[in-house]
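Re-running Methyltransferase domain-containing protein to confirm reproducibility after the cluster update. Everything else is unchanged from the original entry.
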Amino acid sequence: MDCYKEFAHIYDELINSDIDYKKWAMQILKVCDELNIDRKDYLDIACGTGNITGELAPEFNNIWAVDLSYEMLTEAETKLRAKGNKINFVCQDICELNLNRKFDLITCCLDSTNYILESDNLKSYFLCVFNHLKDEGIFIFDINSYYKLTSILGNNTYNYDDENVTYIWQNCLDEDIVDMYLTFFVKQGELYKRFDEEHSERAYRHEEIKKFLCETGFEIIKIMNNYEDKVIEDITERLVYVVRKGC
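Result of re-run:
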């Protein structure tokens, strides 16, 4: 899959206006307080350009951030270190995570879990996270809901156009997998540079996620509606799982 390469350099410009990272971080910290989680060791996996990492970093002593994309990590490191954050950046596959450390809090935000397409890899991912948590540590992750991926994104086409960036986003839904084909035109001087990326996300039902979490040994503490304490509905678009590792 060819994704988050050149896209990494314009990611924040396109995504940040739609996501309230500060609000998400405040909700995550609220959960940590409710569950008496130490603010010592924090790991953000599939960290992207480090938006959640940066919001939570000042609250913890030791911060690690992992992503599979060198380009996204480069953007994150440049941005966060310029702000004075001391963060350990590592390029790894989250399904094969191996840091030889344990953490009080691990997060995986902005539907990165949906990028794991195979059940065996999802199991490996949950097990890797489990093994990197301290006893009673928590894992907070979100997914695009089954409803959102199959009924909203599904077989649809979107476009975006402003002075500097234009893109066309075409989706194809096949057996719970949404393949996304994106074509970008980015202004460089008087010309526009074109590049293409392909992304795929799997639509998971709650029953599947619950099964794999329980098999791994996680306790599901609660499920939030888009980082808010609201009732989960059939049309909820983002499910946020708070799970804990038992002793």
